[in-house]
Design a protein that fits this description.
116 residues; globular; single chain; mainly alpha; two-stranded antiparallel sheet
Amino acid sequence: MKVLTWLDWFHVLELRPLSDPVARSLAPQLSREELIEAIHCIATDGRIYRGARAIRFVGMRMPLLIPLALFLWIPGVIWIAEKIYMWISRNRHLLSRLFGCKQACALLPERKRPSN
C-alpha cells in the first residue's frame, strides 16, 4: 500500500486495509475470504473490480501505471494476468518468505495525504 500512496499523485484512491472497520461496510456482499484472496477496487459508480482487473482500473488513474493498464487492455492479456495474479495471491506467504522486503520496506515511508 505504501507504493500506491506514492503513485497516487492526484489522490484518486482511498486505500483501506482489511483490518479497517470501514472496509467491510464498503462492500458487504463480499466475504472476508474473498477480500483476503485478492485486492478489490470499488468504483464511484459501485462496480467492484478484483485482482488484475482492479490493477488495470487503478492503473488508468495513475500516470506511472498507465502503460501497464493499457497493456492489460490488449485482448487475452487480462486472462493471463488474472491467472498470474491468482497464483501470486495463493502463494504470497511463501513468496514473502523468499523475497520479503526485510529492511528495504523501511526505505519507503508511507505518504501522508491531505486527509490524514
